[in-house]
Design brief:
The chain is mainly alpha-helical and 173 residues long. It is 54% helix and 11% strand. β2 and β3 form a beta hairpin.
Length: 173
């Protein structure tokens, strides 16, 4: 399979790289200023949420995500930084539940049971249709998230069901 990158993407690659490098530098400084991993995770989450809110207001994009919409939770691999894992564990009596086949282990009755402390990987994904057939990531939030994972390391906390999701996406284009 041949993958072609658009000229626009190639032109913006340097900008994206430079933005991530600058954010990595800022996050390394933040790690020294905020030694508590729980406070660091909350600070990053607040930054991501503000960036997303600002971008959505600026672009007038309507978000279709709502409680009970768990389309992304079935197909998406979910990465969390070590700080985020500690934050999630702190709300769940110190343990992460076992990953469920095909759906995120944090889904309860179709809703995220850790919504307030969900990882940046979940925060930065936005659906613009219901059911979730059109998704996108807000660029500034992606920069913050990519840099955060680079600086603080990450681990896969949920393995998505990619085969099932491809069938569902073909059935519901």
């Amino acid at each position: 399979m041949k993958v072609l990158l658009s000229d626009a993407l190639i032109q913006h690659a340097d900008f994206f790289r430079d933005a991530i490098l600058a954010m990595i530098s800022n996050l390394k400084k933040m790690n020294k200023k905020i030694p508590d991993p729980l406070k660091r995770a909350k600070t990053i989450h607040e930054s991501i949420d503000k960036l997303i809110k600002s971008e959505l207001e600026r672009s007038h994009i309507e978000v279709a995500c709502k409680k009970g919409c768990s389309g992304c939770c079935s197909y998406m691999d979910i990465m969390a930084t070590r700080d985020e894992v500690k934050l999630i564990k702190s709300t769940l009596s110190g343990k992460l539940p076992k990953d469920k086949e095909g759906h995120c282990q944090f889904l309860k009755d179709g809703a995220c049971s850790i919504y307030e402390v969900r990882p940046g990987a979940c925060r930065k994904l936005i659906a613009t249709s219901f059911p979730c057939t059109k998704r996108f990531v807000i660029f500034p939030a992606e920069v913050v998230w990519s840099a955060y994972v680079t600086v603080n390391g990450g681990e896969l906390i949920h393995k998505g069901n990619h085969e099932k999701s491809m069938v569902e996406r073909k059935a519901n284009p």
